[in-house]
Design the sequence.
């Protein structure tokens, strides 16, 4: 990963991974039970936002840049059509 983390950060990371997976599972369950109807979309979006927030914090803890912000020459995927 990007850097060594403290024991406190490790505990936070475990909770964030749980939050991420639980929110993702809830979003999938909503889609399975209610589909993607107009009424279900706000619930799906709310769960997706929770998962995204958890992932963003995890990236901060581990010192990981998003691929969009990765420096040139890094291992990020290249646009083969450019």
Sequence:
């Amino acid at each position: 990963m990007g850097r060594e983390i403290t024991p406190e950060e490790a505990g936070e990371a475990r909770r964030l991974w749980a939050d991420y997976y639980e929110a993702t599972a809830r979003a999938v369950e909503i889609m399975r039970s209610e589909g993607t109807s107009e009424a279900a979309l706000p619930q799906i979006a709310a769960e997706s936002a929770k998962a995204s927030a958890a992932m963003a914090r995890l990236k901060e803890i581990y010192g990981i840049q998003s691929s969009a912000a990765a420096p040139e020459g890094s291992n990020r995927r290249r646009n083969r059509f450019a």
